Amino acid sequence: MMAAEWRLSGEYLEACTCKGACPCLYLGTPTEGSCAALVGWHIESGHFGDIVLDGLNVAVALNSPGDMAQGNWQVVLYLDAAADGAQRDAMAQIFGGQAGGHPALIAGFIGEVLGVEQAPIHFDAPGRERRITVGGHAEALVEAIEGQGGAAVTIHNHPLAVAPGQSLVVARSKALRHRGHGLDFELSERVAYYSPFSYAGP
Fold first, then answer.
1. 79, 100, 123, 98: which is closest to 7 by C-alpha?
2. What is the pLDDT of residue 3?
3. With contact defined as beta carbons under 8 Å apart, do 56 and 91 qualify?
4. For 115-134, what is the mean pLDDT?
5. What 3 state SS string does 85-105 have?
6. Are 118 and 143 in contact (CB under 8 A)?
7. Three-class SS of residue 177?
8. Which of 8, 103, 83 is nearest to 48 (CA)?
9. With contact defined as beta carbons under 8 Å apart, do 168 and 155 qualify?
10. How far is 126 from 79, CA to CA, in rounded Å?
11. What's the pLDDT tens digit per position in 97-108?
């Protein structure tokens, strides 16, 4: 059965275990040999068919055992506990890759799904900071690096992109942790990024 027409836009952040500028974005080898990350999306406006997704959040904890572009990612998908059953199923289809669009391309890198669950997810964006919490499982708090004249440092046209077509704001993690489903990490002062995103499908 063909997926419903859908569209999402909002903001996302990612924080990972790499040091400096994450080489994964340039199809390079992670600085630690593997790359574990927490990625979160806040949907400012979205729909899946006639199902409204405004204001909901999604998060993915992942581990790439080597170069991200080679795949074999282990992932845990978290869907906002504020979603009702129809909204939950719609987000699971989109971010699970079954509904096409850019999320389907990202899902092609997944080798193993360790878990899918609903949890309270909060995404805040005060000033230069971005923060996501996922129940008691995960947290990422990041702050943009200050560039020339106080402006944000950005990168664009990177080949491996969560938000294609967008310039990423380069940030540093103040906190990054995940516990559960056999995917545990906790550290800080590593690389992070955030930007708007816009997806559509199928």
1. 100
2. 74
3. yes
4. 97
5. HHHHHHHHHHHCCCCCHHHHH
6. no
7. strand
8. 8
9. yes
10. 23
11. 999 999 999 999
